[in-house]
Amino acid sequence: SNHIEIERALNRLDAGGGTVILPAIEEAFYGLQNVDTRYKHVLVLTDGGVERGAFEPLVRRMADKGMTVSTVLVGGTLHSEFLVDIANWGKGRFYAVPNRFNLPEVLLKQPTSAQLPAYRTGEYAVDPDGGPLWWGGERPSELPPVAGYVESDTRTGAEVLLRVRETKQPLVATWMWGAGRTATFATEPTGDGTEPWKEWPDYGRFLGRLLALCASPDQGPFRFTARREGHDVVVTATAHRPTVARPVAGVDGGESLVFESIGRDRYEARTVADPRADVALLVGSDEDGSASGSRRLVARAVVVPEFAVDPDHALDLEALARATNGNDVAVGGVAAAATARSSRDVRHVAPLLALIALLVYLADVLLRRLPRTSYSAARP
Questions:
Q1: Is 321 helix (H, G, I), strand (E, B) or coil?
Q2: For the chain, which terminal residue's Cβ has fewer other Cβ atoms within 10 angstroms, N or C?
Q3: Among residues 68, 183, 164, which one has the least CA distance to residue 115?
Q4: Are the beta carbons of 283 and 224 closer than 8 angstroms?
Q5: In this predicted model, what pLDDT tens digit does every residue of 197-207 receive, in sequence order?
Q6: Is the CB of residue 42 less than 8 Å from the CB of residue 62?
Q7: Cα–Cα distance measured from residue 123 to residue 165, given in angstroms and rounded to the nearest whole number
Q8: What residues pair up with 295 in beta bridges, in sequence order?
Q9: What tens digit of pLDDT does each residue of 36-74 get?
Q10: In three state form, how does the secondary structure of 256-319 look?
Q11: Angle 216-288-263 (CA atoms, 0-180°, nearest 5)?
């Protein structure tokens, strides 16, 4: 209870002799066995001179029980190899610091092998989500609960198919990655976490459909890709096979895109958007006058270093425009589209500039070839 006296007592201690570590590690092992905590991480701090003993079987046993052992050598180089061995046996890390003032940086570190998300056990109600493509029709109204899941957040651009009702956290989610599709389960597809799903008669069909769509993400006649070009989002549709269908795309909850043919079985559409924000698109094909097989496609934001600032310290662009007699133009709408078109129109001037440069070059060559009157001939 008296911190001042404890600090004074510690300051009066003098370090000397060897370091007896094995009994201390044994005490840590027995002390942590019955502790219910997310991390069990043992730090062994020494300045060298560690005694020899049966460290390996003890530390390996600790690692098998989920206790990570890391070693810290403060100054000097004695026994550094032996401390590295202890860290390897304990699935931890070895740190070498020049003095005691660098210890706070080490004490706050956690080995990556121990950084695992929390697993919640219990009975949690599940809500279905996602479009009809994932369910082969209408979504089910009620699903069996789940017995355990890993806490996680929804990835940007992911489509959640199942979520926990209580926490709104994703249970099954999927998203496009490059030209393919990936899906993740926040619980075991088969195991203790999904034990209640044995009462779900359509679970097998749902899992099979999910695997089929991930294995072949383009179920329609077109393969869609999205890329960013400044303020433009460019969506390209390429036909897998000859088809009379037309590609269909639109911003999720917003405008529809108009595709133009750019080659055989290739179409392209553009829309204007803030390059700092992800844009969610719904793409599909129009075979019978309506969009079919709609699926989600995300155009990732472009990370611009100039925009990566604290909003509290951001530049007041509107005030700057007024001070310099300029205009403050918001991104999006007609103004942004005009700006994007004007930037592309600059390329149309390139042939003219090249022609002018060629004419200047030829004129220079011609002037150099003209005969000149020498200085001696010009004298009387």
A1: helix
A2: C
A3: 68
A4: yes
A5: 888 888 888 88
A6: yes
A7: 11
A8: 283
A9: 777 788 988 887 767 777 888 899 999 888 888 988 888
A10: ECCCEEEECCEEEEEEECCCCCCEEEEEEEECCCCEEEEEEEEECCCCCHHHCCCHHHCCCHHH
A11: 65
Alpha-carbon torsion, ordered 209, 214, 216, 222, to 10 deg: 100
Show the tokens assigned to 285: 């094909």
Give Cα 376 to chain centroid, integer Å: 78
CB contact at 8 A, 90 and 69: yes
Q: Interior CA angle at 289 toward 210 and 212, to 5°?
A: 10
Phi first, then psi, for residue 264 (nearest 5°) are -65, 120
Give dist(CA 90, CA 58) in Å, integer: 9
Amino acid at 361: Y
Structure tokens at 50: 């560690």
Where are the alpha helices (H) located in the chain, listed in sequence order? Answer: 3-11, 22-32, 55-64, 80-89, 103-107, 203-215, 317-323, 333-345, 350-369, 375-378
Phi, psi (rounded to 5 degrees) for 286: -115, 100
Q: Work out the burial of residue 246: count CB atoms within 10 Å of its CB; fewer than 13 is exposed, 13-18 middle, 19 or more buried.
A: middle
Angle 81-21-100 from CA coordinates, rounded to 5°: 70
d(CA 238, CA 236): 7
Helix, strand or coil, per DSSP, at residue 162: strand
Helix (H, G, I), strand (E, B) or coil at 228: strand
Q: Which of 230-234, 275-279, 321-325 has the lowest mean pLDDT?
A: 275-279
Place of tokens 């070693």: 71
Cα angle at 299 between 296 and 300, to 5 degrees? 125
* pTM for this prediction: 0.40
